[in-house]
């Protein structure tokens, strides 16, 4: 009997934690999203089943949803383009410098997320090094605002930088434990470097690619710090900024904020399900 119950006892702390800090708040959020406000009394609600909050949230802020998914998708793509060569070099090329590079990847986590984002505002400022180089080559004159800050470029750059480690580490873990003999076998069968990478290395690293993509896209889609500090007041705001504003700045905005949160969660879950089903492997599923 004790052996039979041992696995369930080991799962019990995790289940209690998830119940208290995920399921219960989720139920509370669902309850708030269906409340109605008392007319003429902002901040006062009564409990009913007002599904119109979801319709209002979608019709009023559909553009913010699209912008959030677009920025998160772009940041995920750029993070992948930067992370895969870095992870590949760490796994196969750098040798004794591997630990140093790992520390460099993890080092940003020792600094506050907000401070890192503010630093990017300084880097991309009008008198910053990046803007000076682009001005020297007359690139900024082709941009509508003539600057980098308060544009979608700054927001995507901030998202890419802040979530890059979440892409690097899973890919590195997959490549590091890959069987090198399989890769060498592809080379022994007269495949060139690109063919070996496409048919052997990349498929072997797909669990890490999928994990890194999810770990980057999901928090980026709900982020509001980068859009708030690096973007403009209107044209670059994401749905996370709207949720934050409805919760803390708009009187009586709790139901709309909760409905926005649930809608964003549902959209991300649907996209993740489709993505994993299409590109996932048996190890991930």
Explained architecture:
The chain is an all-alpha fold and 285 residues long. It has one domain: MetI-like (MetI-like fold), CATH 1.10.3720.10. Helix content is 72%, strand content 1%. The protein is built from twelve helices and two strands. It has helices at 2-33, 52-92, 98-106, 113-123, 129-136, 152-176, 180-188, 193-204, 206-222, 225-230, 239-248, 254-279; strands at 36-37, 45-46. The protein has a two-stranded antiparallel ribbon. A hairpin with a 7-residue loop joins strand 1 and strand 2 (45-46). Helix 2 (52-92) crosses helix 12 and helix 7 (180-188) packs antiparallel against helix 8 (193-204). The longest helix has 41 residues, at 52-92. The relative contact order is 0.13. The mean pLDDT is 86.
Question: How are the SSEs placed, and which strands pair?
Answer:
Elements: H1 2-33, E1 36-37, E2 45-46, H2 52-92, H3 98-106, H4 113-123, H5 129-136, H6 152-176, H7 180-188, H8 193-204, H9 206-222, H10 225-230, H11 239-248, H12 254-279
Helix pairs in contact: 1-12, 2-6, 2-9, 2-12, 4-6, 6-9, 7-8, 9-12, 11-12
Low-confidence segments: none
- How do the helices and strands follow one another from N- to C-terminus? HEEHHHHHHHHHHH
Tell me how many strands there are. 2
Helical coverage, percent range: over 70%
CATH structural class = Mainly Alpha
Structural class: mainly alpha
N/C terminus separation: 32 Å
Number of helices: 12
The number of domains? 1
> Strand order of the main beta sheet, please?
1-2
| Main beta-sheet annotation | 2 strands, antiparallel
Return the average pLDDT rounded to an integer.
86
Rg, Å, rounded = 23 Å
Shape type: globular
CATH topology call: MetI-like fold
Which CATH architecture? Orthogonal Bundle
Fourth CATH level, the homologous superfamily: MetI-like
What percent of residues are in strands? under 5%
Subcellular location: Cell membrane
Pfam families: BPD_transp_1
Keywords: Cell membrane, Membrane, Transmembrane, Transmembrane helix, Transport
Membrane topology: Multi-pass membrane protein
């Amino acid at each position: 009997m004790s052996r039979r119950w041992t696995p369930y006892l080991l799962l019990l702390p995790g289940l209690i934690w998830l119940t208290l800090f995920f399921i219960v708040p989720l139920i509370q959020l669902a309850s708030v999203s269906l409340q109605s406000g008392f007319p003429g009394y902002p901040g006062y609600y009564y409990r009913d089943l007002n599904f119109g909050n979801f319709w209002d949230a979608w019709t009023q802020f559909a553009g913010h949803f699209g912008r959030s998914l677009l920025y998160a998708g772009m940041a995920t793509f750029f993070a992948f383009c930067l992370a895969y060569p870095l992870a590949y070099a760490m796994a196969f090329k750098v040798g004794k410098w591997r630990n140093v590079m790992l520390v460099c990847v993890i080092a940003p986590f020792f600094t506050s997320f907000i401070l890192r984002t503010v630093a990017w505002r300084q880097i991309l400022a009008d008198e910053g090094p990046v803007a000076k180089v682009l001005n020297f080559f007359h690139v900024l004159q082709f941009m509508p605002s003539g600057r980098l800050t308060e544009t979608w470029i700054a927001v995507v750059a901030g998202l890419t930088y802040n979530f890059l480690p979440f892409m690097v580490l899973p890919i590195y873990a997959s490549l590091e434990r890959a069987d090198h003999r399989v890769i060498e076998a592809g080379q022994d069968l007269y495949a060139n470097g690109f063919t070996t990478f496409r048919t052997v290395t990349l498929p072997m690293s797909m669990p890490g690619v999928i994990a890194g993509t999810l770990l980057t896209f999901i928090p980026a889609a709900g982020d509001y710090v980068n859009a708030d500090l690096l973007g403009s007041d209107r044209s670059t705001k994401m749905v996370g900024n709207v949720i934050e504003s409805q919760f803390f700045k708009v009187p009586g905005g709790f139901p709309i904020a909760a409905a926005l949160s649930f809608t964003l969660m549902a959209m991300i879950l649907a996209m993740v399900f489709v993505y994993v089903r299409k590109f996932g492997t048996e190890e991930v599923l």
